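re: ur question from earlier - yeah i can do the single chain one, its not a big deal. heres the input i used so u can compare w yours
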Amino acid sequence: MTAGPEKERKSKKRWILLLAAAIVVIAAYLWVSDRFREEEKRLRSDLRQAVEETFPEKAAEVADSFGLRRFDVDPDPPIPIHPGGKAVVLVHGLDEPGSIWMNLAPQLHQHGFDVWIMRYPNDQPIVDSAELLFDHLKLLPLAGVQQVALVAHSMGGLVSRELLTSPNLGYGQSVLYGEVPQVVALVMVGTPNHGSELARFRILTEVRDQLVLLAKGETNWLGGILDGAGEAKIDLLPGSRFLTSLNARPHPQGVKLLVIAGIASPWSDQQIDDFIANLHGRSPVESDSMIADLKRSLASLTNNLGDGLVTVDSTRLEGVEHRTVKGNHASMIRNLAKSSERVPAAVPVIVDFLEQVFSELTV
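and the output i got, formated as tokens:
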């Protein structure tokens, strides 16, 4: 009579022990990897290189899917490129299968911009991604593009900043020689300029990335390594060697910068200010200290939540224009469903900013 309950208790105890062991293993891995970041990064790069050398045909197949592509709603016949026109290059972020621009690209196209979409191995070191972007920008002068704006989502903003400020790439000198277009503006949307702790869990977004590409028939069984072995995760962690080096450099000269941060909180900064101002008008002077504490608490909650992946403070850069919009990391710039007619909050901000930048160039 007691065999059943006893067996059930032993089964539950076994699962609890397995779960505890799994938690200990994960915690140990995070502890070790956090203290040996650069060593882990080298091991990941060595793994990727070994796979590329072992499977050269698969590596070439994946490499062919990367590069700069012109966006056109109706590519037949293609719309000619207008030299001296308004050109924009869109740079995606970590583990992005391509849908992030589904709303912005058509809007820019409708406003007369030549739109180019850059796709790169988004899990490789950010320095490598910046070098690849740099190489592909060299193709644009051949198409008559002399000036271009960059719009970058998430990690794409770091790739773009590395391109513009790296002493090894020499962007400024290349502009003088006419090798690459002059970048007149950089818009960073949800960019973790000071890192994100959630980068530790990039395996979840990698799985999503590969599943989406698999459904589209654009991946193979080695895609999860050949598009980068997770080195970008280490670059994205707060205090990483990459971010420390990048943030120590001055901002690029002659480039208009804009940072857009998403707020997933139910309150915007303006709503908090209005609410606090209303409280001040209705409360006695003795309560000013308590109201100030309330404002700090609400502001802290909004900032720390940020867009759900990146805090508002992590997006900020000293001396750079900063705006906040409603939405999470993805929804502030794209709709979840293609049939949705909602205009993501960041889209009109980006279009207006770029229109202003290019109009000033023609004056």
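Residues 202-216 have pLDDT under 50 and may be disordered. not sure if urs matches, ping me
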